Predict the structure.
Amino acid sequence: MSKMKQPVTLIGIPLEEGSGRRGCAMGPAALRIAGIDETLTELGYEVIDAGDLEPSPVSDLADIPGTKNYAAVAGFTRAIEAATYDAARSGTVPILLGGDHSLAMGSVSGMARHAAEAGRPLFVLWLDAHADFNSPATSPSGNIHGMPVAYYCGEADLGDILPEGRPLVDPARVYQVGIRSVDEREREEIADHGVNVFDMRSIDEHGVGSILKQIIAAVEAENGLLHVSLDVDFLDPDVAPGVGTTVPGGATFREAHLIMELLCDSGLTASLDLVELNPFLDDRGKSARILVELTASLFGRRIFDRPTRAA
């Protein structure tokens, strides 16, 4: 996101097959009902709503052992990669309205292609309770929403969903913040590949502001593009209950807002995922409204501008 207020493209991703639980397909509608388009318009952005994507054909692909609902996720991945790339290349900021976190296989890959053409490295800020660095060979569940980071780093063999030789993300340019649930084998993989992990203990000891400033400095030092991927379960379940993968001890409402405010100040964010929102599990739209509030902070809403809402 530049400080010149680039137009924003909303891309709905009604994808739930990567999670193994129904409900995330309703996420894009919930975010629109919560007013994400009106909020961004009020902040002075031109908002282009591209509607909800449909999966691309995948008749050329065979199922991959160790995965569930492979064809459905693969079809969405192809469509998401193309739509994200097109939106970024046209000069807008893609905002992916999810949908489960497997959508990042497409969104990050699309941004990696855009960044490669621009001659700039892509960094990823992964705000999540989970590392999502599994592969079909290591995943305990086979749910693909636990594999996107490994996939866009080139470490998960999921067949020929995207073209061979696609731009990948260097694991050393992936920054995971808020992590608190990691599989044993997954822990070894992220350590071996040099992923930067700031778990909740790191946040408790050092503060989220200090951590974000370190990440921002790393992106600025390489003139990078930054993709932000925000999972509802990054937040504590008491703050945002509308997710099927709750893990106690997550980020507070204020910590999450500070992250977004610092990112806004940096002007570095080029694209955004809002994922794992499951309205079926939410409390009267609470989690959807919080995601919209956090998006508003990322795009420039200041503390003094926030409306007071009735309980």
